[in-house]
Recover the amino acids of this structure.
């Protein structure tokens, strides 16, 4: 079965809010084997909404509309859909009772427009709203199941999980188990990774492989459908092994965890810590490492030291190193990393020094830098070159340092 999602609301068209509901629903639908083929956003206009619904009904088995179920005049979803499918709107008595109790408990009068939120198409399945007032519904129209859900994410999530999802699952005639997994790669571009697995992409049927590039890394989402979880796990594992046999050296993890979370978990699990000395990144690495609960266990501290005097005073970079090699150098990066490690008595030290831009620094162009990694087995400064804006350079520098630290930790564990 395939589905289409329509987000209703001018705020979506104007870019005032992101349509996170569509992302949530797509993930939920894929978990029960329903493929989403189209997303649409439509403003609060009856004619345009009707056109969008008619188009979706002609091509989708399931149509889910989000938003436009509130009490105001611009909430037009239920009215538009009901007119199009030729069903009058009727009050769900349980929804009316909920509205009456809500306003009575707050000692407020309930106006007629609030009663709109208890209307559903005649013969529809009603979905209670445990987090709000506007009820949802599901109705069949010429073989397409039309589902209307509220727009506020908190209300939509609760309603979908508690009512719409069980209802949908019960409607599936040929229910298939679906299983997904994500492999995460770094230091290999999307085109190079795709080249390594080109024949697998060309031949893919089940599982399917979808490359997803973002923020200097690449993920491969593998999705398999089958009659049982055991069968799916076998098919998925076989495909993973084929991919990792070709590009395993670049794979840093599997699942939803990103690089920073994986590094933090490895540090915590092994009772290890890292400290930082940052010039180029201005504390961005420290900010990343302190996002996690219990951060003090893995990150005792860090310093921002832009000037040469600060590098000497905070992490003890020798003046002769700065005079002979300069602030932007492998030697300075190594001294900064060692200094941070010594200062905070951590297992690892990370440092950043370089040109963030827009101007060159000490003969280095914007994006050229050294990242130092001090570990129990030794210290090394890594030359890195990143293209882009000052903000992008700083962001990618942190990610590169995380990957270098990940490699150190992986080597310590023996692969």
């Amino acid at each position: 079965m395939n589905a289409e999602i329509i987000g209703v609301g001018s705020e979506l068209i104007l870019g005032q809010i992101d349509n996170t509901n569509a992302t949530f629903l797509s993930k939920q639908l894929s978990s029960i084997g329903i493929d989403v083929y189209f997303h649409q956003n439509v403003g609060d206009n009856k004619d345009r909404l009707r056109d969008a619904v008619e188009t979706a009904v002609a091509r989708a088995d399931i149509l889910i509309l989000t938003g436009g179920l509130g009490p105001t005049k611009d909430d037009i979803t239920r009215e538009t859909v009901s007119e199009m499918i030729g069903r009058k709107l009727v009050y769900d008595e349980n929804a009316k009772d909920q509205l009456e109790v809500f306003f009575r408990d707050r000692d407020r009068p309930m106006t007629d427009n609030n009663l709109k939120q208890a209307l559903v198409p005649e013969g529809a399945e009603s979905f209670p709203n445990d987090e709000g007032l506007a009820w949802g519904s599901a109705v069949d129209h010429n073989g397409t199941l039309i589902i209307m859900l509220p727009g506020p994410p908190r209300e939509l999530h609760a309603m979908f999980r508690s009512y719409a999802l069980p209802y949908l699952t019960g409607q599936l005639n040929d229910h298939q188990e679906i299983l997904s997994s994500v492999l995460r790669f770094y230091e290999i571009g999307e085109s190079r990774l795709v080249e390594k697995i080109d024949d697998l992409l060309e031949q893919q049927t089940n599982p399917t492989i979808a490359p997803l590039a973002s923020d200097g890394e690449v993920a491969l989402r593998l999705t398999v459908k089958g009659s049982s979880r055991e069968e799916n796990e076998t098919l998925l594992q076989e495909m993973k092994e084929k991919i990792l046999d070709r590009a395993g050296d670049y794979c840093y993890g599997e699942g939803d965890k990103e690089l920073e979370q994986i590094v933090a978990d490895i540090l915590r699990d092994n009772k290890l810590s890292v400290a930082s000395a940052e010039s180029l990144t201005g504390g961005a690495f420290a900010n990343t490492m302190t996002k996690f609960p219990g951060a003090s266990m893995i990150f005792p501290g860090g310093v921002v030291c832009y000037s040469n005097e600060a590098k000497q005073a905070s992490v003890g970079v020798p003046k002769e190193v700065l005079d002979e090699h300069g602030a932007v150098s492998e030697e300075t990066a190594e001294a900064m990393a060692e200094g941070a490690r010594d200062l905070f008595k951590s297992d690892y030290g990370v440092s950043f020094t370089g040109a963030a831009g827009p101007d060159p620094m000490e003969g280095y162009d914007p994006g050229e830098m050294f990242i130092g990694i001090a570990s129990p087995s030794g210290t090394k400064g890594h030359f890195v070159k990143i293209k882009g804006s000052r903000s992008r350079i700083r962001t990618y520098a942190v990610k590169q340092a995380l990957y270098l630290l990940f490699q150190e930790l992986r080597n310590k564990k023996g692969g």
